[in-house]
Amino acid sequence: MLLLNLAFDLLSFTAIMVLVVLGLGIVASMMGVFNFAHGEFVLLGAFTVWVAERNGFPSWAGMLAAPFIVAAIGWLLERTVVHRFYASPVVGMLGTYAIGLVLREVVRGLTGGQFHTVGEPVGGSFDLLGLTVPAWRSVVILVTLAVVLGAWLLLARTTLGLQVRAALENPALARASGISTTRLYAATFAFGAGLAGLAGALVVPLFSLFADLGLRFLVQGFLSVMLGGVGSFEGPVLGSAAIGMLSAGLPWVVPPILADVLVFVLALVVIKLRPQGFIHRKGA
Amino acid sequence: MRDETKAPTRRQLLGAGLGTWAAVGTGSWVLRPSWANAQTGPIKIGIATDITGAIAYAGNSCWQTAQMVAEEINAAGGIAGRPIQLHLEDTASNETTAVANVRRLIQRERVDLVIGGITSSMRQAIKDPIVTRGRTLYIYPQLYEGQECTPFLFNTGPTPAQQCDEFIPWLVKQGAKRFCLPSANYVWPRLLNRYARKVIEANGGEVVFEEYYPIDQIEYSSTVARIMNDRVDCVFNTVIPPGVGPFFKQLHTAGFLGRGGRLACVYYDENMLNVNRPEEMEGLATCLDYFQALDDSFSKELLAKYNARWPGSQYRFVAGSAATGVWRAMKLYEQAVIATKGDTARQTVAAAFDKASIPNGPGGGAEMVPGKYHAKMNMYIAVAKAGNYQLQQRYEMVDPKEC
After folding, report:
1. Do both B337 and B242 map to the same domain?
2. Coiled-coil intervals in this record (chain B) (predicted)?
3. Which end is more exposed in chain B, N or C (fewer Cβ atoms within 10 Å of the end residue's Cβ)?
């Protein structure tokens, strides 16, 4: 019984990590940009649900709207600011960090720096094989599976995905073949932002809304991408699954304070032994 | 001929200006009285609190409280004929920034008193620049872990003894036997737990486990499983936000409250009622020096005055934000300076402050325990019912038992 319980909790937190990191991984892999504002896109998704709820809409309506609103904000930021950073990745990290800082502090102002609970559309728990299963966590697991599958199909099986990968591999040749890399980059960045918005909207009922919600996932997110390897779709997904599994699983066997450090130590050892990450594609 | 290339562009000037503004910060602020005593000048009080950063919601209510009290005192003729002038510095939830800003209060403004600091780490960081090197009086207003017995540093918030001595026996009487102490890993929970464990065991309770988590941990499945399997009936919680929201939610989903489990948490005030859904914290018990639900006429009027002074403010007058401690600090200091007839020299005021008392205040009066740097005050037990606190017990002038 305890084992089943453990298995569900591992699966649940792993799904949350994968969902949060997915957009970050796609932007890092497909565009070579480490988006330090990713956590704040997650926060904006969560914030959207809260605003919707406060204005009398049901929380599921906010969850539906969040990915589109955040994608639009992502697109706008890419067109105005982020596209200037492509030439120099370090400036890009600092620049996106600054964007994140501004977004975070604006949300802090608008929420009064307080914590706000947001309702889940499907609350409570149900019994399965004698196990008490939290309903919303189950929904998050299912949605994560669907989103990962959908994103993979989009990027690996469609013409659009092919163009995105071509633009990453050889931008000059892609442009020569009639692909507008400018538009593709904007679209990819917006897609990553939209995924972050969706993640934030779905996890906010579990964690409450607060300004540092995204920051909480930032470090683990980057570790996941490093661990999984930049340049592929599968890498960051596997990396975040590993980090999520470790973060939720280790506290069952060692004191939680030690577990927190151990996750990083283990990840760093793996990165040391395999600097290219779990999965590495040539040309990335 | 002027070299056009070297002249700064408008954009550069704007950038430099913004940069300077960002570096200097907006934290410095002076609230001057509308009148002054020409001979002695105003009494300068420095408020060093978290106007920005993670606990800005608490710092801003401290600042609003300080302004309200200063305005009242000035309108009534000041203290011994001298008005109060407030100097605000932002501690920004960052100890390094705070020390630099607090030095400004001491060295440039030469304030007579500093009130502020909310977290214990902030108090530790700024007390030396204020008390030792700055030779200035310092009042720390927040509930905390105790053991601060520095001369010229007075504490106006509740101590572990005030929050546990009555509260834990009450919990045991309500049926709690098997306690667990899940905690954020920093100094306040560690020292509070050491005290709480003694009181729990002295009252026939049992501590099933005491465990510490990284401050920002938000996943508590292993803890919840342990609580459910070890048949814990009272979770004496010192996990703080952001972890406490998901922790209580996971506990509720696992059926802890449903099987009659009790949550207890001594920093929970009205602000914390938003962190979870009402059903996830039903029956949560807390013990503080003030609740907005108090119905004595002074507390009610005080709250009404605060809300009228700051209409619609999202920073509320609550105990966990240290707002009540700031109110007490200002009023006790007023009494001390009245006793010294307007003399604000540190030695003299500290001697008077050591014996100061106020007949009224949020939750009731307060009385410094001479030589102990802490205050006796009334304590209240409240229980969350459907998203609001219901008062259960009132204890008169509880002893801080410090130093």
Report:
1. no
2. none
3. N
Q: Does some domain include residue B13?
A: no
Is B221 within 8 Å of A134 (Cβ atoms)?
A: no
AA identity, residue B35: W
The CA distance from A244 to A265, in Å, is 14
Nearest to B287 by CA among B179, B183, B199, B159: B159
Q: Which amino acid does the sequence have at B376?
A: K
If asked whether residues B120 and B146 sit together in one domain, one would say yes
CA B56 to chain centroid, in Å, comes to 12
d(CA A185, CA A47) in angstroms, rounded, equals: 26
- What values do phi and psi take at A30, rounded to 5? -85, -20
Residue B1 lies in a domain: no
Could you tell me what percent of chain A has a pLDDT over 90? Answer: 61
Examine residue B100 and state whether it is found in any structural domain, yes or no: yes
Compute the nearest-CA separation of B215 from chain A (Å).
9
Q: Tell me the ipTM for this assembly.
A: 0.87
B146 shares its domain with B167: no
**First CA to last CA distance, chain A:** 45
- What total of structural domains would you count in chain B? 2
The answer, for A258 touching chain B at a CB cutoff of 8 Å, is no
Residue window 16-55, chain A: list those with CB within 8 Å of chain B: none
Whole-angstrom Cα distance, residue B249 to residue B245?
6
Flag whether B49 is in a domain. Answer: yes
B261, B346: one domain: no
Q: Which residues of A123-137 are buried (b: 16+ CB within 10 A; e: fewer)?
A: eebeeeeeebbbebb
Which CATH number covers residue B276? 3.40.50.2300
CA distance A223 to chain B (A): 16
The predicted model scores a pTM of 0.88
Other C-beta atoms lying within 10 Å of the C-beta of residue A184: 22
| C-beta separation of A95 from B43 below 8 A | no
Number of A to B CB contacts under 8 A, please give it.
98
Can you tell me the distance from the alpha carbon of B321 to that of A197, in angstroms, rounded to the nearest whole number? 31
Query: Do residue B37 and residue B105 come from a single domain?
Result: yes
Q: Do B169 and B271 share a structural domain?
A: yes
Q: Residues B76-102: pLDDT tens digits?
A: 999 999 999 999 999 988 999 999 999
Assess whether the previous peptide bond of B242 is cis (omega < 30° from 0): yes
How close A220 comes to chain B (CA, Å)? Answer: 12
Our CA-based measurement puts residue B243 at a distance from the nearest CA of chain A, in whole angstroms, of 8
Contacts of B315 in chain A (CB under 8 A): 112
CB contact (8 A) between residue B55 and residue A207: no
CB B313 within 8 Å of CB B64: yes
Residues B207 and B266 in one domain: yes
- Distance in angstroms (rounded) separating the CA atoms of residues B164 and B192: 9
Pair of tokens at residue A233: 């779709």
- Sequence-distant (6+) residues with CB within 8 A of B292 are B270, B303, B316, B317, B318, B389
With a cut of 50, list the residues of chain B below it in pLDDT: 1-8, 13, 16-26
- Judgement on whether residues B65 and B202 belong to the same structural domain of the protein: no
Q: Report pLDDT digits (tens) over A2-15.
A: 788 889 989 999 99
Q: What 3-state DSSP class applies to B55? A: coil
Subunit contact A117:B185, Cβ cutoff 8 A: no
- Label residue A76 exposed, middle or buried (CB < 10 Å: 0-12, 13-18, 19+): middle
**Is B284 in contact with B390 (CB distance < 8 Å)?**
no
Q: Are B321 and B269 in contact (CB under 8 A)?
A: yes
Domain limits at B306? 25-158+298-368
